[in-house]
Design goal:
Helices cover 25% and strands 21% of the residues. It has 498 residues and is an alpha/beta fold. The protein folds into three domains: 4-49, no CATH class; 64-382, TIM Barrel; 389-491, Immunoglobulin-like (Sandwich). The radius of gyration is 26 Å and the shape is globular. Residues 45-381 form the Glycoside hydrolase family 29 N-terminal domain. Alpha-L-fucosidase is responsible for hydrolyzing the alpha-1,6-linked fucose joined to the reducing-end N-acetylglucosamine of the carbohydrate moieties of glycoproteins.
Length: 498
């Protein structure tokens, strides 16, 4: 009998070579891999393990912690924080496309012959304090943190054994940024740690060589990507792996399915890690524990699969840029609106900040995060551990978005709790019309506002209900700002589909 190590995949349309009997077998598909068996489109996992097919990998249940968390912090930090101009794509804009704006910036501010690598020595991070960052993220109300361990420039924020001379230990701050932040984040007891990792690198010669050969060779993947990904997983044990930089090559080149199989079966974070959908052409919005589909993805309608809205407070850049203007930053009202609309439609939101080269987070980012935290402290019941309701957006008042408490939709529940997040204050009438309850008026037990202890007055109308807000003076006295959440309690036997 052949041992597991000797078994290998054979996946051909009509003729497959199956090593179990060492002979050709005519079948639709014959696939023997590491103790797994697949026939046709049906895959069976021996001992409950996943096999390297998208059908099998996509069947993995989403870890509960991620769906409950809802709100995360994204951090784009790297050598691009040194020029701090344009965006984190500075290098490729300057040397790849030779964009006039970037060429002129370099000519005006740096001596001839200055290279992008020369920026690294000024990436000092002398004011970086991982504990202070983690404390800010706790105050923001976020539940997880994702750090760019390596962006498209290839510079790693940990002492990678496979990126000699181009990592944060060898050049720049001479510190293990990933390790420090991972420790500080976990020490809070309130945050989960994750990493972003760019698969490709703009100017890595191994990668460009593979690309020149139409990705028929995998020197870059075998010698760089896989070793670094496993190094990150084994050494830092992130519970989010956020892949990017995949779009030039198919998932087969990146060996994505094989990597997922190891990640879900044998890695030290196999039970808790979540991954996104950026693992090669044809995977975006199709595969992975959660879908991102595009940057700043917010469809405004309920999605069938778990998804994430990765957005940035600076509208024009993910990395720090000194040339940003005040109007370039998302306002607190806009940020709260993104949270409400995202969570209502079943998504998580990942909110990005770009630190300075010294390792500080600009006050405007911190202010937005602290404002968000104050709002979540009052309205968090409508966000954390919530789930989408039958309606996402109200039928009469478009600025109202709904969520419901998990478990309250069970048929054996005595009550059902619906949250209506009102994004625009009704200054003219001090009341809000809700059409989603037009056929269920008799089921309403009471209506309150989060942060306000008194039951609100309401009445039925021809097309729904009219809810009276507390006085504006009282709302201002209680410092209820940005968005206002109505908690609507319904009696049991509420029809699940309205």
């Amino acid at each position: 009998m052949l041992n597991r190590a000797s078994l290998f995949a054979c996946d051909f349309a009509k003729v497959a070579y199956c090593p179990v009997k060492m002979r050709l077998v005519r079948t639709s598909v014959c696939l023997f891999v590491w103790g797994f068996i697949c026939w046709g489109a049906q895959c069976t996992a021996v001992d409950g393990k996943y096999v390297p097919t998208w059908e099998s990998l996509d069947s993995r249940p989403l870890p509960k912690w991620y769906d409950d968390a809802k709100v995360g912090i994204f951090i784009h930090w790297g050598v691009y924080a040194v020029p701090s101009y344009g965006s984190e794509w500075f290098w490729i804009n300057w040397k790849g496309s030779n964009a006039t704006e970037y060429v002129q910036f370099m000519n005006n501010n740096y001596k001839p012959g200055f290279t992008y690598q020369d920026f690294a020595s000024d990436f000092t991070a002398e004011l970086f304090n991982a504990t202070e960052w983690a404390d800010l993220f706790v105050r923001s109300g976020a539940r997880y943190v994702v750090l760019t361990s390596k962006h498209h420039e290839g510079y790693t924020l940990w002492p990678s054994k496979h990126t000699f001379g181009w990592n944060s230990m060898d050049v720049g701050p001479h510190r293990d940024i990933v390790g420090e932040l991972a420790g500080a984040v976990r020490a809070t007891g309130q945050l989960t740690f994750g990493v972003y990792y760019s698969l490709f690198e703009w100017f890595n010669r191994l990668y460009t060589h593979d690309r020149d050969l139409a990705f028929l060779h995998r020197e870059y993947v075998d010698g760089k990507v896989w070793p670094e990904l496993k190094e990150l997983i084994n050494n830092y044990r992130p519970e989010v792996l956020w892949s990017d930089g995949d779009w030039e090559a198919p998932d087969g080149y990146w060996k994505a399915r094989e990597f997922f199989t190891w990640l879900y079966n044998d890695s030290p974070v196999r039970d808790t890690i979540v991954t996104n959908d950026r693992w090669g052409m044809g995977t975006l919005c199709l595969h992975g524990d959660f879908h991102t589909c595009s940057d700043r993805y917010n469809p405004g309608v309920l999605q069938k699969h778990k998804w994430e809205n990765a957005m940035t407070i600076d509208r024009k850049s993910w990395g720090h840029r000194a040339n940003a203007r005040l109007e370039d930053f998302v306002t607190t009202d806009e940020l709260i609106g993104e949270i409400a609309t995202t969570v209502s439609c079943g998504g998580n939101i990942l909110i990005n900040v770009g630190p300075t080269k010294a390792g500080t987070i600009d006050p405007i980012f911190a202010e937005r995060l602290v404002d968000m935290g104050r709002w979540l402290k009052v309205n968090g019941d409508a966000i954390y551990k919530s789930q989408p309701w039958d309606y996402q957006n109200d039928t009469l008042t478009g600025s109202v978005w709904y969520t419901t408490a998990k478990g309250s939709s069970r048929r054996d529940s005595s009550f059902r709790t619906i949250y209506a997040i009102v994004l625009d204050y009704p200054y003219k009438t001090n009341s809000v019309r809700l059409g989603a309850f037009s056929n269920q008026v008799t089921k309403i037990v009471q209506i309150t506002m989060l942060g306000f202890n008194t039951t609100l007055k309401w009445k039925p109308t021809d097309d729904g209900i009219l809810v009276e807000f507390p006085s504006k003076n009282e709302i201002d006295r209680l410092k209820l700002h940005h968005a206002w959440t109505l908690k609507i309690t319904l009696s049991s036997r509420w029809p699940l589909n309205g």
